[in-house]
Each structure stands twice: as C-alpha cells, then as structure tokens.
C-alpha cells in the first residue's frame, strides 16, 4: 500500500490529508486540520512542525506532498505561507520522508483537468476519481487530499512499483 501525506500549509490552518492507495486501486482517506494557537510566530510554526511530525509518526507515509506557495500580491501572506510550508517540510525531513512540492495550479489541473478550477470543482473531482459517495472534509483538508492525489498521479509507475 502506498501512503501519501498531503499538506496544505497555512499559519492559521494547515490542512492535512492521508491518501492510501492499495495495489488494486482502492483508496483510503484520513484528514484533518492543524490549528496552531494564537501567539508568537515561532510558537505557531513549532506547533505545525510538531503536529506534522506526530502525523508522520502515526501514519508512516511513503512521501509527503506539500503545496508550494504561489506568487501572492501580499508579500507578508506569501512569506507566512512559506514559513508554514517549511515547518511541514522540516518535519518530514526529520523522519527521512521524501517531500514533493506542487503549485496550486498544477494540483487543480492534475485533479480536475483545469488549472483554474475552484475548490468545489476540486472536491467534486476527488469524489468522482476516488469513487467516494461524499467527502465531508473541510476546505483545507480537501485541498491537502488533492495535493496528495496530485502527487499520486505525478509519480512515475516505476516508483509506485518499488513502494508496493
């Protein structure tokens, strides 16, 4: 079974989604949202790092896929997203888990076929492509699942066979 932990980084809410793909194509999903407590930036980033480490230790993913911050009009927002992303990446590195980055447009295009798809379209595409009846995950967690699914789609078949 292949396990991919997707991370949608954010300073207020970091979504996570675990995608498990069996050799027969069956998919298992788990998800949640990390909400660091208010306080100094360093404490919030430490909380994200610590919580992602807990997820990696508990679920033992084969790889971690993280959304790469895109060019933002607000520089401060772009920097804080990058810091939250770094906190998650460092957590994966502490366990020796490979990290892969994907920009939002690439995730949307891989999952829906349209790089400008909105969040609802991404969620609907996940439901259809994973054969789910519904997906009641909050937006941050659904985005993280989409990032994990994007990585699954982008991984060469040779690598998938090595994991199995």
Overall description:
- By secondary structure, this protein is α/β, with parallel strands linked by helices.
- It has one domain (2-163): 2-Layer Sandwich (Nucleotidyltransferase, domain 5).
- Helices cover 50% and strands 20% of the residues.
- It contains six helices and five strands.
- The chain has helices at residues 41-59, 75-94, 104-112, 119-129, 139-154, 157-163, and strands at residues 2-8, 14-21, 27-34, 63-67, 98-102.
- It has a five-stranded mixed β-sheet with strand order 3-2-1-4-5.
- Helix 2 (75-94) links the parallel strand 4 and strand 5 (98-102).
- Helix 1 packs parallel to helix 2 (75-94), helix 3 packs across helix 5 and helix 4 packs across helix 5.
- The longest helix is centred in the middle third of the chain and has 20 residues, at 75-94.
- The model has no long low-confidence stretch (mean pLDDT 91).
Rg over CA atoms: 15 Å
CATH-assigned homologous superfamily? Ribonuclease H-like superfamily/Ribonuclease H
As an assembly, this protein is: single chain
Total of domains: 1
What topology does this entry show?
Elements: E1 2-8, E2 14-21, E3 27-34, H1 41-59, E4 63-67, H2 75-94, E5 98-102, H3 104-112, H4 119-129, H5 139-154, H6 157-163
Keyword list:
164 residues; alpha/beta; Nucleotidyltransferase, domain 5; five-stranded mixed beta sheet; 6 helices; globular
Short description:
By secondary structure, the chain is α/β, with parallel strands linked by helices. The chain has helices at residues 41-59, 75-94, 104-112, 119-129, 139-154, 157-163, and strands at 2-8, 14-21, 27-34, 63-67, 98-102. The protein has a five-stranded mixed beta sheet with strand order 3-2-1-4-5.
């Amino acid at each position: 079974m292949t396990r991919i932990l997707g991370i949608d980084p954010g300073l207020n809410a970091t979504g996570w989604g675990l995608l498990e793909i069996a050799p027969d194509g069956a998919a298992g999903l788990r998800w949640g949202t990390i909400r660091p407590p208010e306080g100094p930036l360093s404490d919030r980033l430490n909380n994200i790092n610590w919580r992602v480490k807990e997820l990696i230790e508990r679920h033992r993913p084969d790889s971690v896929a993280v959304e790469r911050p895109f060019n933002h009009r607000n520089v401060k927002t772009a920097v804080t997203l990058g810091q939250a992303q770094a906190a998650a990446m460092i957590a994966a590195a502490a366990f020796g888990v490979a990290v892969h980055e994907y920009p939002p447009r690439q995730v949307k295009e891989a999952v829906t076929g349209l790089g400008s798809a909105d969040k609802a379209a991404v969620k609907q595409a996940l439901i259809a492509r994973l054969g789910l009846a519904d997906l009641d995950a909050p937006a941050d967690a659904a985005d993280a699942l989409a990032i994990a699914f994007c990585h699954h789609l982008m991984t060469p078949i040779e690598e998938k066979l090595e994991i199995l």
